[in-house]
Amino acid sequence: MLNIILFGPPGAGKGTQSQYLKDKYHLAYFSTGDILREEMAAKTEIGLKVKALIDAGNLVSDDIVVEMIRQRVKENIKGNGFLFDGFPRTVRQAEMLDEMFAGFSLKINGVLSLEVPQDMLIERMLERGKTSGRADDNIDTIRHRFEEYDAKTKPVMNYYETFGNLHKINGVGKIEEVFDRLCAEIDKM
Ligand code: AMP
Question: How far is the CA of 133 from the centre of ligand 1 (A)?
């Protein structure tokens, strides 16, 4: 089994690269951001609960996202592996994922961190905002998402660095170039 976390700030290209990675390595792919947006679109109980937080660029609670992942891991345990995008986003989520994986006798093979300078990220997200229809792709909310990232998500990198399975990947360049860099790292795992 191959279990990978694609890590990186908002706008780093995690969603785009995941589409190629899940096909190449036949992985069950889960983006907590996508799942939450589906819940909001369907106006489920969770969707209604998280909408104001997401629209304002705040993270939603650890318990909600970990539970969403737990269900999906359970349902796909017999597959080739998992690719997580946008999860874990806090040290607590990383700890809860470790506990969950230990319970299923699974392990994380590697954490790939896409590195892109912040000014480029903001440019990309504003561009995406023209067509994404996302309430959080506007300049004020983007700034707040970076504050959340710096305060709560960046420490997750140190968490995985300590365990030695963090790999930093240059996320600047053509989609195919970045994809090749990611694959080169995965193929060593
Ligand atoms: P994304 O599509 O990954 O940029 O996520 C969009 C929004 O969903 C984030 O700004 C958060 O409000 C929420 N979100 C997505 N994943 C998580 C997570 N793992 N933990 C907490 N909030 C999340």
Answer: 16
pLDDT at position 16 is: 97
Q: Within the chain, where are the H helices?
A: 14-25, 32-41, 45-55, 62-75, 91-103, 118-132, 139-148, 154-163, 175-186
Q: Are 91 and 159 in contact (CB under 8 A)?
A: yes
Residue with tokens 């799942």: 35
pTM, full prediction: 0.97
CA distance 126 to 29: 25
Q: How far is CA 119 from the centre of its chain?
A: 20
- 163 band by pLDDT with thresholds 50, 70 and 90: confident
How far is 58 from 76, CA to CA, in rounded Å?
29
Q: To test the ligand 1 pocket, which listed residue (17, 59, 69, 121) has its Cβ within 8 A of the most ligand atoms?
A: 59
